[in-house]
Amino acid sequence: MSNLFDLLVAGLATGAIYALVAVGFTLLWQTSQTINFAQGEFVMLPAFLMLAAMHVGAPFWLAIILGILLSMILLGLAFKMLLVDPMMRHGVLPLAIATMALAIGIKEAVKQFFSAEASPFPSIVPTGDISVLGHAVSLQSIGVLVVAILAVFGLTTLLNRTSLGHQMQAAAQNPTVARIIGVPVERMILLTFLINAFLVALASLLITPIYLAKFSSGEVLGQAAFIAAIVGGFNQVRGAIAGGLLIGVLDNLAAAYVSTQYRAAVPMIFLIAVILFRPQGLLGRAEERTV
Amino acid sequence: MSGFAKPLKIALGLIVIAGLIVIPMNFNRYGLFILSQWAVMTIAAMGLNLTLGYAGQVSLAQGAFVGIGAYAAAIMTTHGWPLAAAIVVAMALAFAVGWVLGYPALRVQHHYLAFVTLAFSTLAFLVFRNESWLTGGIYGISNIPRPHIFGIATNKPLPFYYVCLASLAIVSLAVWWLIRSPWGRAFMALRENPLRAQSLGIDTRRYTLMAFAIGSALGGVAGALYAPLTQYIDPVPFNLSLSLDLLMMVIVGGAGFYFGPFLGAMIAVLLPEWLRFTEGYYLMLYAIAVMGLLIWSPTGILGILDRYMAARRTKAASALRAVAKSRLETAQ
Q1: What's the rounded mean pLDDT across residues A41-66?
Q2: Has residue A197 been placed in a domain?
Q3: Residue B332: what pLDDT?
Q4: pLDDT at A2 over 60
Q5: Which pTM value belongs to this model?
Q6: pLDDT at residue B1, as a whole number
């Protein structure tokens, strides 16, 4: 049973990171119908921005702050103004394709300007194990879980408990009415892009020490977050969180109990089943958009 | 205007076809490979254009069907079957699998459908990689023979390029006929307004499945040509990014336009090659070019042309109206 416990903890830790990425993904979908195929690359890039900052001599804490700020400018502001804004009114598909091209662009830029090799990345959590209920659990897993839970908790508080959050929800659910009652819809949309950029930078900070910084590492991550978002419910933040955790655990269990060869198939089959039998997602509501 | 436009179009088409036959004669090996690849990818993109551009069903699995076709052809031809038989089998197999994959399309639409096909694409890749008794696993299948056509060996790059080009021509004619047939019109009705299509007595269930199956079958044909073209296949080229690339080709060229896939495949296959002189930057520039194009015209290259033609037509029409009006006034 100790094996199962370890798997669950590791799964929850990866799942928490998926959840962060998936939440950002659903936020963009809800406020601007952007299906961001570059979301995985969005997670990959901030780690390299931080590495670059450290390369020019910044200490780790400053590199983190610079990395998060830069990613909010590049992946939040610039992404919205240069790519999403001009294409938003032309429907979902062309924009989705443009984000695919963006994914290629980011990958190639990192490969060209940084490195094609995997680089190590310092961890914000000290390495080592502690004992929980008689099991050795790595501090890294716990640190990842704690930071991710705090981030998600902060976000849900923002969305559900503050006026700003209510305005964002209004902008997502019914932009026209929101505009009439005086919600600055444009600013709210921009805000969700900035939040997404913050979340991916955070996810980058948490996951890169585990899997190393590599230009191609966004592919797997983006797909996992994508599946998490759909499984949980494309139109619900709490759905994306549940989906992320579920996919993380499922993936780890599948690797141990199904086969390493087909571990990637388990979340996919699960995804197909969810779409066919409950297309709105496990926690989603049909044809409705809420933040 | 259309009076002289039609012969002009035919002449232009003939010049392009003649160019595609004559100019590559003194291309080197690599140039011919790239051009053959363009022909093969155009076939796959045409299939996707049927599914997506005409019938309006988003599929992220076309790459998997190219893979199914490629493996079918590779397995059969390395066991001594002729390529023609392999193409038929590849087509039938992709058709059958595409038909089954179409069933989710009856239940869910739009992005949900895209996600189902995306999952299918990944599953297909896993099967290619893991079922090594059939597919050779990560080592793939090598020494795939090229066919003899009417006793002529097509081992050299130029003859095989002509095989690809001829296949493209046949597929193009078939698709041309299909979209002008009642079926093609039914597909378009499905895209524009499924409810109205149904109320007009179109069996939307059957046509949705058909759109998927036929589009997938063309993916299978492309795959069956891809295998002898590269003469070696492994699972890597058929992963999700091929499906995404094909989707990009269709959208960039112009979804729902007959010539869209030709242009889209040209951009996706040839543009990176033309940009090779920029060395490490070529894929980056390619990505920027695609984004720039889509920002400029979300309906793709042919969307630009279409808008230009529409503007000219309205201009011409309003000029005619103005003339007619002044005539009316002078007559009074």
Answers
A1: 94
A2: yes
A3: 59
A4: no
A5: 0.87
A6: 41
Q: Is A273 on the interface with B (CB under 8 A)?
A: no
Of B24-28, B121-125, B243-247, B259-263, the one with minimum mean pLDDT is B24-28
Taking the Cβ of residue A272 and every Cβ of chain B, the question of whether any pair is shorter than 8 Å is answered with yes
Q: Which residue has the higher pLDDT, B113 or A146?
A: A146
Return the SS3 of A282. coil
- The pLDDT score that the predictor gives to residue B92 is 97
Q: Quick check: A265 contacting B, CB < 8 Å?
A: yes
Look at B110 and A92 and tell me if their CB atoms are within 8 Å: yes
In which element (H, E) is residue B149 found?
strand B148-149
Length of chain B equals 332
DSSP code per residue over A6-68: HHHHHHHHHHHHHHHHHHHHHHHHHHH----TTHHHHHHHHHHHHHHHHHTT--HHHHHHHHH
Question: Tell me: the pLDDT tens digits for A59-100?
Answer: 999 999 999 999 999 999 999 999 999 988 888 888 998 999
Q: How many domains does chain A have?
A: 1
Q: How many CB atoms lie within 10 A of CB B8?
A: 11
- Judged by a CB distance cut-off of 8 A, whether residue A230 touches chain B is yes
Q: Has residue B305 got a pLDDT over 90? A: no
Q: By the CB < 8 Å criterion, does A177 face chain B?
A: no
Do B281 and A276 make contact, defined as CB atoms within 8 angstroms?
A: no
Say what the ipTM of the complex is. 0.84
Residues A146-173: what's their mean pLDDT? Answer: 90
Nearest chain A CA: its distance from B286 CA (Å): 8
Given a contact cutoff of 8 angstroms between Cβ atoms, the answer to whether A60 and A54 are in contact is yes
B284/A105 touch (CB, cutoff 8 Å), yes or no: yes
For residue B193, the tally of other CB atoms under 10 A from its CB is: 13
Nearest to B141 by CA among B213, B76, B220: B76
Task: Tell me which residue of A263, A248, A226 sits closest to A26, measured CA to CA.
Answer: A226
CA distance B257 to B263: 10
pLDDT the model gives residue A127: 75
- In a mutational test of the B interface, the residue from A275, A282, A287 whose CB has the highest number of chain B CBs within 10 Å is A275
Could you give the CA distance from residue A40 to residue B102 in angstroms, rounded to a whole number?
A: 28
At which residue do the structure tokens 């076809």 appear? B17
Q: What is the DSSP letter of A116?
A: S
Q: Is B109 on the interface with A (CB under 8 A)?
A: no
Give the other-Cβ count within 10 Å of A151's Cβ.
Answer: 19
Residue of B115, B290, B294 with shortest CB distance to A87: B294
Hey, is the C-beta of A35 within 8 angstroms of any chain B C-beta? Answer: yes
Contact A94 B251 (CB under 8 A): yes
Instruction: Kindly tell me if the per-residue pLDDT of B2 is higher than 50.
Output: no
d(CA B149, CA B139): 29
Give the minimum alpha-carbon distance from B48 to chain A in angstroms, rounded to a whole number.
14
A286 assigned to some structural domain: no
Q: Residue A127 falls within a domain, yes or no?
A: yes
Question: Hey, are the CB atoms on A97 and B252 less than 8 Å from each other?
Answer: yes
> Quick check: B36 and B95 in contact, CB under 8 A?
no
Q: What's the domain range around A23?
A: 2-277
A286 pLDDT tier (thresholds 50, 70, 90): low
- Say if the Cβ atoms of A35 and B119 lie within 8 Å: no
In a domain, A291, yes or no: no
